[in-house]
Amino acid sequence: MGRPDTDGDDPGTRPGAAPSGWVRKTITATLLEDAHPGSGAGGGGIDALVSRDREGAPVIWATHLEGLLRDASRALHEGEQHANNLFGKRGRTRQQAVFTSLYWNDTAALGTPPASRVWRSSARESFVNRAPKDETLRAVEFVPKNTTFVGEVELPSSVVTEVDRLLQEVDAVGRGRASGAGRVRMKLGDAKVPSRPVNKPDARLLLLLRNHDPVCVASTATPGNLILTLPYLPGRTVAGALAAWLISEGNREAALGLMDGSLSVGDALPVPEPGKDGRLCSIEVLPAPLALQSAKPAKSIGSAPWWAYVEPPPIRFNAAGHKGDKLKRPEPDLFVNRAGKGPWSTLRPDIRVRLRNGRPDPKQPDPLLFAIEQVSERTNFLAEIRGDPTKLCALGEALAPVLEGRRWIRVGRSGAPVEVERAEWAKAPEPATVREIAYLTLTADLLVRDARLRWLTELDAKTISSSTVPGWVADVTATPLYQDETSVYGFNGTAGLWRLPAAGVRRGSVFKVAGNGIEILARAAADGKWLGERTHEGFGRFRLDPTLPGISADTPTGGTAAVLRTGVAPDPGEAVALKTQGWFEAHRGLARPGTSGERRPSLSQWQNLAAELAGENTEALSSRRNPQTAGLAAWRHPDATAILDELERVGPGHAAAHANFFVRWLRAEARKEAK
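Above: the chain's sequence. Below: its structure in token form.
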């Protein structure tokens, strides 16, 4: 999915208001001066880098935009009441206007983000002494002026005028606003509201969700400075988001169907971009089975970083010759999927850490610094809703604006806007063809209690019975092959309190089942009769297969193995790091000070070269090949000239990345020498 586009016309969208007096607007921000929408991170010789989205383009996060609008509201109305009514108050009311972040808009159809600029500044020793203070030297990355960002906002029609007024009050974004940096012009326009038809109701409802902004579903109730996220959207989270929307629209009866156990909302698991003609019912996705294990990485040889080595391919648990090896289980954020009867492939959602400053009280002198994990924007999730046919049909009618894409739901921490990209009614799947032996894989966490109401975190052949595990078939026995425990947390948005934690058997656990009632168990999985407790929240879902689903045992080595480690194509930075390491090893003397009468470029000179290449300075290399000043004479050193030759060979489009990595090798060696 591309970035927001305000041009053109799409027959699947229509301008105007959404139901119940809600409208969707676009926000266009054009930079009048260079801006730094800070990320709180640095690297490559730069002290502060700009925030970037999953595609590497600069972005102005929605939290920063809302903070600027809050300040404008306080200035206009002289108090907090109006700002709290419009943007919500922590732990009390939710905001009326839901903003997405402002993403770079490729108006020139260049396909690549604009080249950033690096500002360098420092404080001087005194009024009469212009020498810079060493501790104040800083290099900050800026987005160039004339860059355009576009986002959207969903809000009641009654507050459109007020939001437009506040946007006009925002004259600058990012850091350095007081000194004139980040001057901006914002404009509110009409957005194209989708209207996607949904087919007739059937046995189950499939939802393809897409988050407009990064989303975090906290995986623990007591986070520290780093708030970890789950790599998927739990069924209880999706159900709560849908119920909250229904309650806000005054439809409590339909919301009750999501909470009384008559309907079951499954976990929304990440899936790749489906084709426009492909049906959602043909997509299969499940957490990577714990039996899909791989050999532990070998000890690193040499000075190359660990991430530069290819990870061994996975090994099926029943592959010959590997029963006694110590293998590594798949990570919790690894999923396997396929379309139709095609081959299985892996997927790992893009999860990034974002640094944040929290200031709940405007009068608080110091901000609260913390970091938060988030699943990147524009990630696809597939969820399934099953249950009573009458209530399921009524739910579909009540959620029509959401299912057709005309309204958003808010999911996770801070309520990230999530849109139903596609909704599809489908028949119940056919039960798996199994005989006397099959493999049961948990596609969701399983919650089971013993006779004393204690949570069970592992099951054995004796405890897996119809008397212990609700929904189990009497004539079926199960033998655990691979299982693990998990903790389950939750938050009740209505009460504003954490739910009591629970413990269970982790999703992806594998059991070998046998018995006369195995076909009955396969029919139960096809009919949506799940195992354990709280099945209406998505727990206890499973599937039965004659062979274990996932990557086949004869997975080839090479490129496929590299994909299994990251879930996406190999990071191009790994190849650049290896290549520049070879340069460094061949010219290691550049990291050491020159002897008497011998001059070599200093580390700061290498950093300046990398910054000029990043700024697309066409004379960055030529000016050093033919130095005209005494300061550039050090580039005549043979080793330095050899590196300039290498940078010229890789081409202008890749020279900046290679120069940055080469500087990192130099800095790492300099630290070793300092020790």
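The longest strand covers residues 416-426.
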